[in-house]
Design a protein that fits this description.
CATH topology of the largest domain: Fructose-1,6-Bisphosphatase, Chain A, domain 1
Number of strands: 14
Largest sheet: 7 strands, mixed
Helix content: 25-40%
Oligomer: single chain
Strand content: 15-25%
Number of helices: 7
Radius of gyration: 17 Å
Structural class: alpha+beta
CATH superfamily of the largest domain: Fructose-1,6-Bisphosphatase, subunit A, domain 1
Distance between the termini: 36 Å
Length: about 270
């Protein structure tokens, strides 16, 4: 696993250098019909660099990547899960908060996670059972003991219908629980890393793609935090939605923002 970690770190730094070189000059395109769902030339170039670097060392491994979707299932024997530029809308608007995210999984279990913030030159890493690190120094979750003491981050899925309304309701309910504050940063992977190193206390988003959270999920867990899906079940690579906290008040947090089920127990 150490060799894979070194490879992932190199790939993340290389991709980070690519996105910084194109910052403020990259071409911006739209994905699908939604005018707010963006992709940039930097996304594509960075992803190509990551896949080529890892593929050269592990040609038989599978990939799940944001910009070049494959048929690889989350339970593949060897799977790399790649988001070359998490926070594309931030990036396209020259808002300096974005990152590269790379995870490695075996048969559905994430064993390695790397998230690189090229603006701050912050490299978050974790391997299963070995702890979480920021630029080589071990990190841990915050000590906030209850929801009232917490700073929470959230995110909005591209669905601006029910998903947006439910997110706004969750924010409303959290403020009525007297939390310290809410932030919306625009990068799920960095939200999870910031949770892992104690900068925030909890995070929720009701729908995310696996490349958005796979690496960050492991980093949070290795820092001592708790990760579930939007119904409170253990978070995995097939989950819908992400609710994470420092673990000290996860049940209390879940009680406020848990996604409602219908009468048949479905989300």
């Amino acid at each position: 696993m150490e060799a894979k970690l070194r490879l992932a770190k190199k790939a993340a730094r290389e991709a980070g250098a690519i996105v910084l070189r194109q910052y403020k000059s990259t071409a911006v395109m739209h994905k699908g019909e939604a005018s707010h769902n963006l992709v940039t030339a930097a996304d594509l170039e960075a992803e190509k660099a990551i896949l080529e670097r890892i593929g050269k060392h592990f040609p038989d491994h599978a990939f799940l990547a944001e910009e070049r979707h494959s048929e690889s299932a989350p339970d593949a024997p060897h799977l790399w899960i790649v988001d070359p530029l998490d926070g594309t809308n931030n990036y396209a608007h020259h808002f300096p908060h974005f990152c590269v995210s790379i995870a490695y999984a075996q048969r559905g279990e994430v064993l390695l996670g790397v998230v690189y913030d090229p603006v701050r030159r912050e490299l978050f890493t974790a391997t299963k059972g070995k702890g979480a690190f920021l630029n080589g120094k071990k990190v841990e979750i915050s000590e906030s003991q209850n929801l009232r003491q917490s700073l929470v981050t959230t995110g909005f899925h591209y669905d601006r219908g029910e998903m947006m309304e439910r997110t706004l309701q969750g924010i409303h309910d959290l403020f009525h629980a007297n939390i310290h504050g809410i932030r919306r940063t625009g990068s799920a992977a960095l939200d999870l890393c910031w949770l892992a190193c104690g900068r925030i206390d909890a995070y929720f988003e009701y729908e995310l793609s696996v490349w958005d959270y796979a690496a960050g999920m492991l980093i949070v867990r290795e820092a001592g935090g708790t990760c579930t899906d939007r119904l409170g079940e253990p978070l995995g690579l097939r989950s819908m939605g992400v609710l994470c906290s420092n673990g000290h008040f996860h049940d209390e947090f879940l009680a406020v923002v848990r996604w409602p089920e219908d009468g048949n127990g479905r989300s």
